[in-house]
Amino acid sequence: MECQECQERPATLHFTQVMNGTKKEVHVCEVCAKEKGYMTYPEEGYSLHNLLTDLFNFESVPLGNTNGDTFRQTKELQCPQCKMTFTEFKRIGKFGCATCYHTFSDRLDPVFRRVHSGNTKHHGKIPTRKGGDLHAKKQVESLKTELKNLIENEAFEKAATVRDQIKEIEKQMRGDDA
Amino acid sequence: MTLQQFMNEAISPWMREDGPDSDIVLSSRIRLARNFAEASFPLIAKQEVLEEIKVFFQKEYEHQSFQDYQDFAFVPIRGLSPVEKRVLVEKHLISPHLAKHAESAATLISENEQVSVMINEEDHIRIQMYFPGFQLNKALKKAFEFDDWLEEKVNYAFDETRGYLTSCPTNVGTGMRASVMMHLPALAITGQLNRMIPAINQLGLVVRGIYGEGSEAVGNVFQISNQITLGKSEEDIVEDLQSVVKQLIEHERKARSRLVDQSGTQLEDRIYRSYGVLEYSRIIESMEAAKCLSNVRLGIDLGIIKNVSRHILNELMILTQPGFLQQYAKKTLTANERDVLRASLIRERLQLEK
Predict the structure, then answer these.
(1) Lowest mean pLDDT among A82-91, B4-13, B85-94, B269-278
(2) Domain for residue A67, yes or no?
(3) Is there a single domain that holds both residue A53 and residue A91?
(4) Residue of B151, B167, B202, B213 to mutate, interface with A, max A Cβ within 10 Å
(5) Domain housing A54
(6) Contact B40 A121 (CB under 8 A)
(7) A93 touches chain B (CB under 8 A)
(8) Which residue stretches, if any, does this entry annotate as coiled coil (chain A) (predicted)?
(9) Looking at the complex, does the CB of residue A129 fall below 8 Å from at least one CB of chain B?
(10) pLDDT by residue (tens digit) across B212-239?
């Protein structure tokens, strides 16, 4: 369907207008809708960024429990590294540095849960250099799953080798700790 | 390799190769976001810190090579003209964000342009790996190897529970955005895609137009990517994306053959009209050009138009962007001048096919 205003672009907004008791069908494109004032936009449209910062503003001020405590100053959480405060983080929706993650750690789970469909823990790649123990831990984890499968399938010989592998890695990890 | 060569070579060398399912999937991309552990993120970091990072990359990686990715060009964004910046954006080698925050931003680009590193974008490091056609697994494997190579010299910001730490909470964890660019004319024409998008979104994947966030689908080219980066492994994320892409490919193929069966003549008419417009018009706007190019490409894929290379869509989609047109004209152009030049460039390109 063509836009009824410009007759050029396809109409993407369809609605019924009721004015002085008469109904009128309106079919316009976004450009004309904006021009003719059918639609109002805030300054620059609602960006992903706005959406995010809105998502972070979840912390409701605790009501009720204010008797006598009204003037108590709650200390603002601030990152010792980059000086970003938690309020600032909520406003701009971005972290200032890696240390922010530790500083705000206790308050981040709800943020991540919202953005990442309920997830709060990383389950992916680990840096080769930095990972150290993590690699061994991850390897043990996947070997244990393999071991379970092998036992279920009664492949005991193979299972024994995998078990020995796990023991070996765990021994090494303990050795590293010592 | 100089910048001039980048610009002259409008089409990245990797784009010339045909990948699997390249009648529908134009390209596969893996992007990894990484940061230095010690420095504040670019958003609030001091100028000196960012400058130091930039210098580090130039010193360590300029003219270096890694596997198939030879002779890295180090390009500071500050030194580029507006047109040059735009060209890099249109080639998807840098993001609009990087072009805008030019002060301490830079990019590292391999000779074949398959891998590029954006320096001091929203994160200190953003690795981009491209493959032609549908090759997400291969792209992921190569991106990982490249990531390990960078890590030999960079102390990444990483946390045991949160994973790779990024400036924006939407990237934390894997820091990975996997995406495919798909040409889906039949699903778009028949309106099926709009019905499929909500289901795709529910799987934690996003469908958007070719130039990323908020852009509408120009020329029926869509980008599909993962939204979630925390809690799933990179392999699992890629697998989820892959299974959706496979289904989309199947649906698109079915929709195409149904179109041919049910409205063969109308379809042929639509394709040839577009071909006519591209071949004879003297003034053409970018939207119209994109629409016609999509139709002609569909015609080529269906065997209706013969003797025209399939790469023409990818190639002209990029070449007819404002940045490239001005690069070609070697001066800034008004919108009208661009429409005239666009038409003549398309005519010339089609002449080459004969």
Answers:
(1) B4-13
(2) no
(3) yes
(4) B167
(5) 45-58+76-122
(6) no
(7) yes
(8) 140-172
(9) yes
(10) 444 456 788 899 999 999 999 999 999 9
